[in-house]
Amino acid sequence: MKRKILIVLLCIILVALAVIGYFVFTDMQQESKLRTELFELYELSNAENIDIDEINNRLDRITTKGEYAKVEDAFKSYLRENFNNSIQIAEILNDNRITTLLSVENYKEDGKDFIESKKYITTTKAELENCKTKYKEFFTEEKAMSYINNKELDSYYIDLYKQKLIGDIEDGAENNVVESSIDEVISILNTTEKVLNFLSENPNSWEINGENIVFNSESLSAQYDELINSL
Questions:
Q1: Which one has a higher pLDDT value, 215 or 24?
Q2: I want to staple 153 with a disulfide (CB 3.0 to 4.6 A). Which of 8, 77, 157, 214 is the partner?
Q3: Integer CA distances (angstroms), 210 to 105, 199, 213, in order
Q4: How far apart are CA 211 and CA 105, in angstroms?
Q5: Can you say whether the dihedral through the CA atoms of 39, 42, 48, 51 is positive or negative?
Q6: CA angle at 36 for the pair 32 and 37, rounded to the nearest 5°
């Protein structure tokens, strides 16, 4: 009788160990899949030629199951908003119109009041300031953790998200580079705005002669040159 009880207990223990082993193996498999997916995302975002469509496809899919799917969804939601904001920043910084505002062609097309040019400068500066604020927020622990705090996950998964996926996001030289680039373009737009204001305030004192702007006063010409040289 005792032997039968021992056999039953042994069977129960073996079944329990098998179940535990299955879940441990499954967990390890899911965590490995998550890490692989995010590593590939990192590789795509750091490629020489970034495939935006492929990155968006990866961000829109969930490759894991169970609690890991919640972690993946949280992290990809964080990445998606950050990525979209970064794309907007890049598009503004690379907008060719910024470099043509003080061209002879623009003086001809939008002078002498420069209504459209000034409107563009005001809108672009506001967009850049807004993007910079969002960018800085994304690299704070509070913002990063906001994507997972409402998932009702055990501490293990929250720690996985925080320690292994997010890491020390507040310590990055790249963040300063992006913010400096934004500030530099805003500074250029501010000076450009001063030039256009100067021209629109003195509409009868200048004209376009061929490919050059010509003033009827040496004093105004010197003021214009000083503004241009401050760029």
A1: 215
A2: 157
A3: 10, 18, 8
A4: 9
A5: positive
A6: 120
Q: Which tokens belong to 51?
A: 């495939």
> What is the residue-wise DSSP string for 50-115?
--HHHHHHHHT-----HHHHHHHHHHHHHHHHHHHHHHHHHHHHT-THHHHTTSHHHHHHHTTT-H
Overall size of the chain counted in residues: 231
> Tens digit of pLDDT for each residue in 115-171?
999 999 999 999 999 999 999 999 888 999 999 998 999 999 999 888 878 876 665
Q: The tokens of 151 are what?
A: 């998932």
Q: Cα separation of 150 and 14, whole Å?
A: 37
Composition of the chain by helix, strand, coil, percent to 5:
75, 5, 20
Structure tokens at 136: 């800085």
Helix (H) or strand (E) holding 116: helix 115-138
